[in-house]
Task: inverse folding
């Protein structure tokens, strides 16, 4: 059996990707995780495609320099806009959050009618629609951009009445035949219970969990596992720091975030980079 003690790189625009990192750590407790949150450029969800691609390329280059063995793009916006570009450009396995969520939705929907919620950029890219139809062309997909949810979550109002009302308002026009809804944003696992309350009886796909399962399967299939007891834990890098990152991050990981390193933005030959 061969082993690989290098860390797994996990990238997001901010704190939301920690839901994916936490799910990976639960599924693969022996693996080390290097996390990069691009707080300087957050939110990606309302930026242009060109900007999202450049930021994601810069983040991937930084993580590759940390000698990672696989890259998880733990951001729905970055995956939908820049996922294919990154897959072409790097020579380690790349896992995005869209395909695992799409696969889970196709497996769970009985009436073959799925709803997807996410940022403006994710929804307008149609990435989930394409991914779901590729898996099962018979599934009908209805999407809603739900941009107010990220700020509400960042405010800590995960179970607040206003968050319930916002979800209810956004989803009020969804067809009644929808039986499965994909949480297409890495912040949304934090409002899983509130969405479930507003949509009783509906299957909810948490793409953090599904991405962690696919990462685990890939690590095992490609014999990339760490040796037991050798690895584990997080190293966290940010392009900027906010107290929100620390407070929400600690809630997601259930541990104190003491070791956060801030990296600097640099431009070389017209390209964004981090050092
Ligand atoms: N992480 C982003 C996503 O999953 C949400 C935050 C942002 O807009 O940058 O779409």
Result:
């Amino acid at each position: 059996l061969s082993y690989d003690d290098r860390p797994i790189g996990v990238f997001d625009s901010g704190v939301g990707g920690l839901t994916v990192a936490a799910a990976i750590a639960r599924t693969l407790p022996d693996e080390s995780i290097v996390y990069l949150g691009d707080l300087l450029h957050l939110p990606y969800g309302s930026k242009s495609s060109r900007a999202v691609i450049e930021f994601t390329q810069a983040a991937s280059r930084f993580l590759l320099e940390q000698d990672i063995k696989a890259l998880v793009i733990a951001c729905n916006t970055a995956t939908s806009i820049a996922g294919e570009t990154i897959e072409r450009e790097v020579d380690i396995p790349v896992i995005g959050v869209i395909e695992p969520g799409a696969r889970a939705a196709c497996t769970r929907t009985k009436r073959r009618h799925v709803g997807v919620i996410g940022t403006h950029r994710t929804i307008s890219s149609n990435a989930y629609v394409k991914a779901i139809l590729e898996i099962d062309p018979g599934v009908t997909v209805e999407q809603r951009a739900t941009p107010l949810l990220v700020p509400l979550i960042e405010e800590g109002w995960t179970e607040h009445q206003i968050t319930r009302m916002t979800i209810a308002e956004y989803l009020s026009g969804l067809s009644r035949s929808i039986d499965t809804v994909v949480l297409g944003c890495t912040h949304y696992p934090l409002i899983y219970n509130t969405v479930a309350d507003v949509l009783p009886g509906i299957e909810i796909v948490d793409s953090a969990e599904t991405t962690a399962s696919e990462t685990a399967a890939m690590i095992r299939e490609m014999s990339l596992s760490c040796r037991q007891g050798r690895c584990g834990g997080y190293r966290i890098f940010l392009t900027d720091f906010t107290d929100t990152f620390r407070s929400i991050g600690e809630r997601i990981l259930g541990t104190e975030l003491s070791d956060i390193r801030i990296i600097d933005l640099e431009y070389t030959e017209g390209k964004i980079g981090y050092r």
About this structure: The first strand starts at residue 8 and ends at 12. The two ends are 36 Å apart (CA to CA). The mean pLDDT is 95. The CA atoms of residues 97 and 211 lie 6 Å apart.
